[in-house]
Amino acid sequence: DAMVIQNPRYQVTQFGKPVTLSCSQTLNHNVMYWYQQKSSQAPKLLFHYYDKDFNNEADTPDNFQSRRPNTSFCFLDIRSPGLGDAAMYLCATSRAGGGARETQYFGPGTRLLVL
Amino acid sequence: AQKITQTQPGMFVQEKEAVTLDCTYDTSDPSYGLFWYKQPSSGEMIFLIYQGSYDQQNATEGRYSLNFQKARKSANLVISASQLGDSAMYFCAMREEGTGNQFYFGTGTSLTVIP
Prior knowledge:
heterodimer, A: 115 residues, mainly beta, 4-stranded antiparallel β-sheet, 11 strands, globular, B: 115 residues, 6-stranded mixed β-sheet, 51% strand
């Protein structure tokens, strides 16, 4: 089945130690998103790619970076995680070009714990 | 102004009963899509149902239906014959034709189904 895959599902890191979360998709969608979601809150968009075009949200901290080496893969790098970065990180994909009717498809998420 | 408003932080429903989750939206774009997602405690966001701004009929998908009132800018989700597995967070979201790939999420409603 076509899907969005995130690895790892759970990640424990130490304060200040760089961490990379990965996302892959078999849907061949041209848009990929990274969201941060804290407990009982709505997902907060960090950035998204439209093909190779990177779109950063204005309030996304510089501590968060992303790479998309090809259509299928997208990475979220947290350069120096702080305790406040502990959250669920959701990757999603969508098809552009179909207008407002195209939904997002989400991966299972990566829960990040910062010690 | 909030693009998506969900005014019910928590809802309870008896098993086998119907429940309505409220969602209002704000946009000046004539072309937009409205989406509902379910997020169980496992964390994955699951797409449930879509309503387009030009759709003449309310969307339905199995036990899910959308009560779309365009003039009131509301898109309430109706879940019929509630099941225990329906207990989850529910998010309403919108995508505008004019803003391309951006999705706007509400704050969510936590639904608990009581046996």
